[in-house]
Structure formats: C-alpha cells, structure tokens
Structures
1.
Amino acid sequence: MTSKRETVLQALHDRLRMALLPLRIDYGRNDAVPTRIGPRGRVFPRDGVPGEPEHTFSPLRYHWQHRAEIEVFFEGSEGSREVPLDDILVAISAAIASDRTFGGLTEWAEPDGPEPSDIPVQAGLSFRAVTLGVWLHFDTTDPLQ
C-alpha cells in the first residue's frame, strides 16, 4: 500500500514529466546534481520536507504542508539561458495550475517564486540554476501514511 505522501508526490512528478515532455527536457526525480546538462536543460524534482503537521482529533487527521522542491538547470552562454529557463518555468506553472488538487489528492498545490543562481563549473562555464518550492497541502489519518 502506497502512502498518501508518496501518492501526492508521484502525482506532482507525473504532471511535471508530462508538461516537460514537449520541451524534451531531461528529467529525474531525486537525481544527483548533474555534471553535464543536456542541450535543452534538466529538471530535478526533490521530494522535499513534509514539515510538522497540524492535528485535529475528532476524527484524527494530520494536516500537512509539504514543501517539495524543483531544481532546473540550463547551460548556455550568458544572455542565452533566460528564455529557455522561462519556458521551463511556464510549463511547470501550467502543470500545477491546471488542477491544483491533483484530481482530489491534495487540497491545494502552490509554487513559490523561483530562486535563480549561477553554478560555476570547469573551463569557466557555468550552469544557470533555478530552484522553486511547491507547497502541497493534504491530510492523512496517520503520520506515516
């Protein structure tokens, strides 16, 4: 039996994978930080941290605000990375906004704003990286479920 947490995370990852498929983006859930980036970029969803749930006791429910993270990497010369990165972020936003309840699995899903950074690598090249959080609000009847 799969936990509600895993079911919600899998729904997020399935949506992201399908949204990025037309852009032909490399995609890998919880993969290691890359040393090479494909020509169209890479996206790494991370399961993130569930945080501490709030409780109601009658009936017993755990109310989670789980923060998953999405790391987006793109390699290119300065000035040539922003539009492809923006296309990826727009696709991610559309995937989440199309049904913020993920078919009733969550009460709400909401992305944070992107946090861009440059990551220097060998030969003076750099990756452009963007990290964004996705808040997943859902309830369970057990903290491990």
2.
Amino acid sequence: MLLAQKEATLEEIRVLDFDYETNKLPEPAYQAQRAHLMEIAGETLQALDELGTEQPPDDVAAQIEAAINRVRAQKQEGGVVAATAVPANGRSQFCPQCGTPVDAADKFCGACGHKLAVPA
C-alpha cells in the first residue's frame, strides 16, 4: 500500500511538473500543489523507512526527486505508470492531475475532468 502510494505521489509530481512546464498552471498554484505533494511523499518515505523497506534518506527532497526521475525514465522506456487517485491520509483521495479531493468511486475529477484510473 505504501509503495503504491509512493509511486502514485511521484507520478502526480511528474504530471504537475509537466503541466507547469507547458504553462498549464500559474506559478502560485504550482508551488502550492508541489509543496503539498512533496509533503505527502516525504511522509510516505518516512513511513516506509519505519517499516525498513528502504534506506533512510539523507535528504528527503533529493530522494523524492530521484524517484521522480526513475518514474520519468520508466515512461520514456515505454513503461506504464497509471495515475490513480490515492488516499493521502487513509480517508480522502486526491486527483493526480489537479490535487482536488475526489471520492473513491469517482471515474473523473469533478474539477478538471481528469480520468481517474481504478486502483487494482
């Protein structure tokens, strides 16, 4: 569960970065959403560290960025990484495109219309 949340959060950051780079998001919205996603990713990495599944990070931000680069490399090599609405706190879920809260049963984000993949 935590590994899936980590990968989904990294994918959300990658999509957010792409949207910002292609001028789909204004700077203030990008910075706020990226800070929120980085916080979620950091918490997820800390939870994984407590379970002993990964090496303890010297610099959480650097580890997150390295993981984002791994996801980008998978994408470029033809790997498929589905963007899913992942529970950040075990109760609510967020759209991987815009960060708006969505229900688990939603197939599309009500705010941006992004198609939500059904978690396996």
3.
Amino acid sequence: MGSRALPQSAIANVRMDATVEGVVKPTALPNRINNMIDLESPKVATMAKISEVEGEKGVFCRCWKSGTFPLCDAAHVEHNKLTGDNVGPLIVSKK
C-alpha cells in the first residue's frame, strides 16, 4: 500500500514542531479530532478492564475534549454547541 499525500491546502496549515524518534510529526492538522491527548504518540489506544469501572457503568470520552480522558467529563456538550457536532460518550454497562 502506498502512502497518500496531503492536499497542498492542508500542508500549508501544518505546524511541524514536534519530533518523535527523528521523524517530524504534525501537531495541528486541519480537521484533526484529537488536539490534546498524547499528541507525541503515533496512535492513542486505551484499554480498561470492566472490573476497573466504578459503579454500574463506565462512561468513556469519544470527543477527545475530556479533561479526564479516557473518561467522559461532558466536554462534548460544549463542543457540540460550538461546532454543531453530535458526539457523545461510549457507555459500557456492567449489566
């Protein structure tokens, strides 16, 4: 599989000021969903055991705006008001 090039319009908006292992990584791409969680990581993947969830359900962030990521803190409510988006949390029930 070949790599896909960014459109020229996107390249103009990329800040290249972070490096990981000598590779320049963009820190702000247009339409980037995650702009604050582990930006130096090539992929953010979080694992949680159901036994670690307190109470009857776990509420996990899907908007990438939560100050308690990976848990939801309802930051999506403000995000949705500002952007017209419709994101909400992933809710995992123990029952």
4.
Amino acid sequence: MSPQLQDRPSAKDHGPSRSVLLVDDEALVRTAMHRFLARRGWTVSEAVDGECARALLDPIAGIEFDLVICDLQMPRLSGREFYGWLARARPDLASRVVFSSGDLLSPEFAAFLSEAGRPVLPKPFDLSELARIVEEVYADAHAA
C-alpha cells in the first residue's frame, strides 16, 4: 500500500517554512490539526498510520520534517512501534516527535511514554495546548 501523503502549503507567509507530519488514523483529528497548523504557517503532510509514515520517513525517501505528531493507537503499525523504528532509522527525528492519545491511563502507555520522554498531547486536545507543544518542540530542536 502506498503512503497517503497530503501536502497543502499555507497561504500565509510566516518566514522560513516549517513542516510537520501528522500521523493519525482518525481523519477528523488529522483535519483539525492540519487546518490549525496550516493557518499558523506550517507546511502540513499527513499519514493515515505508522506504516505510511514509515514509508515517508525512510532515509532513502529523503523527505524531511521539522516535527512529527503521532497517535499511539493505530492499525498496522502503532505509534509505539513507529517510534521504535524511528529511533533506530532516524534518531535525529525521534527527538522531534509529539505523541497524541486518548488513552494515557493505561500502564502500558504510561511506561512507554515515560521511557520515550516525548511530549504528549492528550485527546481530546485544546488547540492552545497543540500550539504550545508544537512551538516548544520546534524551538528546542532549533536551539543553538
């Protein structure tokens, strides 16, 4: 199956282009994040699951992103499995992942998130929280 990539650059010019990959099997969640981030000047791409995201981020593909927002629970390749692959294949990008999930109380997810040490956007999320986390991770990744 080929990756589903949707790329719609923002109409606004906010300086240097910043790019984000949204990895989530819920179309409504991807659409909401896509619209919100695009309005803020991000170039937004989407993957419907971890397997599609892995195909896009394969080092051979040569596609770069400033940030990845990834759901934990997805078919085919979960966020946890995707992150494990990313940490091995693209460690530079693993440090720019934000997880999203509606199930943060499960001991399995809590242990994984603690070990990964990455920010988490709880679902349902507030758009101001999305903006805060995205800007924080972007700033940390681009700090001198």
